[in-house]
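Objective 1b. Sequence-to-structure analysis of Phenylalanine-4-hydroxylase.
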Amino acid sequence: MTKDTVHIAPYVARSADDSGYIHYPQEEHDIWSQLYARQAVNLPGRACKEYLQGLDALAMPKDRIPQLAEIDKVLMATTGWKTAAVPALISFGRFFELLANKEFPVATFIRRKEEFDYLQEPDIFHEIFGHCPLLTNPSFAHFSHMYGQLGLNASKEDRVFLARLYWFTVEFGLLKPQDGELCIYGGGILSSPGETLYAMESKVPERKPFDLLDVLRTPYRIDIMQPIYYVIEHIDMLDEIAKMDIMAYVAKARQLGLFAPKYPPKAKAS
C-alpha cells in the first residue's frame, strides 16, 4: 500500500542497530506468535499451494518477529529478491522504485491487539507473512518486478490506475483452477485472520473472473472488507498479465472512467 500525502502514523517503525539487527520488545514478539498461530490454522485449504510452498521455504520463526536478513537469504536464493525496511507508508515513487530493484518494502512495526483482525497500514506481519512466501515463486516475483518498472515510468495520474491492479492481484487476489477449489494468493487476505474467512466463506462479496480493464476501473477502500475480489485461474497467469500492454489498458480505463463503487461512502468526521 502506498500514499503520496503526508501521513501521521500511529505506529513507529523500528530501526536496526549498527549490525543490522532490529530489537523488538517481547510483547511484539507475542503479537507475531499469536497472529502466526491463528493463520496457521486458517490457511490450510484456503491459501494457494504456491504460497504454502513459499511459507515452508522461508521457514520463518513462529515465536518471534523474523529479522529481515533471515528472509533475504531465502528470497535471494530463489528469485533474487530481498526486503527493504521502510516506514509504514511510502510514496508511490519510492514504492515503484523498490519493486523495480527487486526490493520488497517491509514496515518494521507490528500491529496492536486492537487491530488484530484487520489493519489499514502494512505492518511487518502483513509484509513478511502475507507477501514474502509468494516472492519465492518465479511468476509472482516477475509480475512484481514488472509492476515496479511500469509504475516507475508512469505519470502520477496513471499510477492511480496501476494501484488498482496491485490491489486486486498482489493484495487481494483469489485463485481458482478449472479443476480445483477457490484459494487465496493476495497478501492482504493471507495476513488478515478476519479477511481470510470473509473472502473464502462469506456470501457478501462478489468474486469475478479477472479482467484487466475491469480491474483498472474498480474503485476500492482500504478500511473495509472488500466487496469484490478478482479471480485468476493459476499463479502463472500473472506472467500472462505481465505480457499485456497494461498502459494501453490504463489509457482505456481513464477514457471510460470508474465503475460505481460497491461500498457506501466513507463517513465524514464530525
